[in-house]
Design a protein that fits this description.
By secondary structure, the chain is mainly alpha-helical. The strands form two sheets. Strands 1-2 form a two-stranded antiparallel ribbon. A two-stranded antiparallel sheet has the order 3-4. It is built from ten helices and four strands. The chain is about 60% helix and about 5% strand. The longest helix has about 40 residues. It is rod-shaped, with a radius of gyration of 46 Å.
Length: about 325
């Protein structure tokens, strides 16, 4: 019957573990996942706890009666216990701490080199922490899984993920604007091209026509001739800085860098479309650097091959003359 309260509380805690685990584990829908089912489990747990406390009190009363009977058989009149408040009785029952003056009552039988052991209970501070953890677990379950007064771990995770995704999107937006004529690249995806088309229709049609065919104000953007260069960097710089002497304004104060990149990519996509009423070519014929570079290796390889064939012919002629 010793330490019976601790054992009963430990049993209650073990019986409550499946309920807490099921509350956190994903799976099929169970009856205790509903508010009514949870309340039923809580009431059942309280009833079980009350029954355990009642059994503990019964055992304590039986133990005291047995102690009084043994003392009376030995001719010793048991002393009346002092009146204690409910809190003192509660603390004594919860900790079962033995005062130093009564340590002789908990001395064990065995002895080694004059050292004897006391059958003390767990330290009161440890027991209070254990009780506090039980109370915290019950309150945690009620607040999060019964009354939903606070977000669950899954809800907090989803909220944090939304915040992180918003931060990533904001970062990407700042990186998208970190572009100029020196590092810009042509965009090929349909979404970017469509955005560029919308920007072109809203700002560029009066000077370059609805299909980039040009008019009396601006040049044709669909042929291979360019006044200020036909690379993506040249087009980006022309739109960004403008050509003030020819009446084209600078757009860098009205369009974001990524928008200038999109409209520049759309203009490049107009190459070779041959719209009706196209304006005559202006400027110089533009040849991309990649085309020029790609034309060089075949010429070199051909020259190298001719020199190799001639060298082989000379070696054969020398060999024939020696023979």
């Amino acid at each position: 019957m010793k330490n019976i309260l601790h054992r009963l509380i430990a049993l209650w805690a073990v019986l409550m573990v499946p309920m807490f685990v099921s509350a956190q584990s994903p799976g099929t829908h169970l009856f205790w996942e509903d508010t009514i089912g949870r309340l039923v489990l809580i009431i059942a747990a309280l009833v079980l706890l009350s029954a355990l406390v009642s059994v503990n009190r019964l055992f304590s009363a039986v133990r005291k009666m047995e102690q009084r009977r043994i003392l009376q058989e030995q001719g010793i009149e048991p002393a009346d216990e002092p009146d204690e408040s409910w809190w003192q009785r509660f603390v004594k029952a919860a900790t079962q701490a033995v005062p130093v003056s009564q340590e002789q009552d908990v001395v064990l039988e065995h002895e080694y080199d004059g050292i004897r052991e006391l059958d003390n209970r767990l330290p009161p501070w440890w027991l209070w922490m254990f009780y506090a953890s039980i109370i915290f677990g019950v309150l945690y379950y009620l607040v999060l899984h019964v009354f939903a007064a606070a977000p669950s771990l899954e809800e907090e995770y989803e909220k944090n993920m939304e915040t992180a995704q918003a931060a990533v999107a904001a970062y990407k937006a700042t990186q998208a604007d970190n572009v100029d004529e020196n590092n810009v690249v042509a965009l090929l995806d349909a979404e970017s091209i469509n955005h560029g088309k919308d920007i072109f229709a809203a700002n560029c049609v009066p000077c370059h026509g609805s299909m980039g065919e040009g008019n009396t104000i601006g040049p044709n953007l669909t042929d291979e001739y360019w006044l200020h260069g036909g690379s993506i960097g040249n087009i980006f710089g022309t739109i960004s800085n403008g050509v003030i002497e020819k009446g084209m304004q600078s757009w860098k104060e009205m369009l974001r860098p990524v928008e200038i990149q999109q409209v520049s990519s759309y203009i490049l996509s107009l190459q070779g479309t041959n719209p009706p009423n196209a304006k005559a070519p202006q400027g110089e014929l533009w040849k991309p650097e990649s085309t020029e570079n790609s034309a060089t290796p075949p010429a070199d390889s051909t020259a190298t091959g001719d020199m190799g064939d001639q060298k082989s012919a000379n070696e054969n002629a020398d060999k024939a003359s020696d023979e």
